């Protein structure tokens, strides 16, 4: 059965997504959007992303954490030890969101059928990067450009892509 797997991520111009297991920026509206989109759904993440969360587990979502450490458990979460286990545990009927980090995004890119990208219009120094996407395999279905707020010196875009039916 094909699962409804989506990736949700905020990416700098140089594909940076984090540094020292922290986000590189604080965009309040994007965090609200993330919460609105993912609440009530399964979220899939790696161990480092789990530890980077301000609240663990994220409430009102089924938290699935992937780790390679056998017998490791995460309170209030489903723990799995492979991408396949995470996919099998995710909902058969509802959208599931992959929320990071870099290695997890890379492994899920071929399984995802939707990308929710917040594209930050600035380069940031990072140690964690989003994988390079072949956008010819994706259709841009929504784009809101040059969003600004009073707390940041940069703008950002919301982009939603669906996997092309080749």
What does this molecule look like?
The protein has an 8-stranded mixed beta sheet, sandwiched between helices. The chain has a two-stranded antiparallel sheet with strand order 2-8. The chain has one domain (4-163): Dihydrofolate Reductase, subunit A. With 166 residues, the protein is an alpha/beta fold. It has 4 helices and 10 strands. The protein starts with a strand and ends with a strand. Helix 2 links the parallel strand 3 (42-46) and strand 4. 19% of the residues lie in helices and 34% in strands. The chain is globular. The mean pLDDT is 96. The protein has helices spanning 28-38, 47-52, 83-89, 102-108, and strands at residues 4-11, 16-18, 42-46, 62-66, 78-80, 95-100, 114-120, 128-129, 138-147, 156-163.
Short description:
With 166 residues, this protein is α/β, with parallel strands linked by helices.
Outline the fold blueprint.
Layout: E1 4-11, E2 16-18, H1 28-38, E3 42-46, H2 47-52, E4 62-66, E5 78-80, H3 83-89, E6 95-100, H4 102-108, E7 114-120, E8 128-129, E9 138-147, E10 156-163
Parallel strand pairs: 1-6, 1-7, 3-4, 3-6, 4-5
Antiparallel strand pairs: 2-8, 7-10, 9-10
């Amino acid at each position: 059965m094909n699962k409804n797997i989506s990736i949700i991520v905020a990416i700098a111009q140089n594909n940076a997504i984090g540094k020292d297991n922290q986000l590189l920026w604080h965009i309040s509206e994007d965090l609200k959007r993330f919460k609105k989109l993912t609440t009530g759904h399964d979220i899939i993440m790696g161990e480092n992303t789990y530890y980077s969360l301000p609240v663990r587990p994220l409430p009102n979502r089924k938290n699935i954490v992937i780790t390679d450490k056998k017998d490791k458990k995460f309170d209030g979460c489903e723990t799995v030890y492979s991408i396949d286990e995470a996919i099998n545990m995710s909902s058969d009927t509802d959208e599931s969101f992959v929320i990071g980090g870099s290695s997890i995004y890379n492994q899920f890119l071929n399984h995802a059928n939707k990308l929710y990208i917040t594209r930050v219009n600035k380069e940031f120094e990072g140690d964690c990067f989003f994988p390079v996407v072949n956008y010819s395999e994706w259709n841009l279905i929504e784009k809101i450009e040059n969003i600004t707020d009073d707390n940041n010196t940069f703008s950002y875009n919301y982009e939603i892509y669906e996997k092309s039916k080749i």
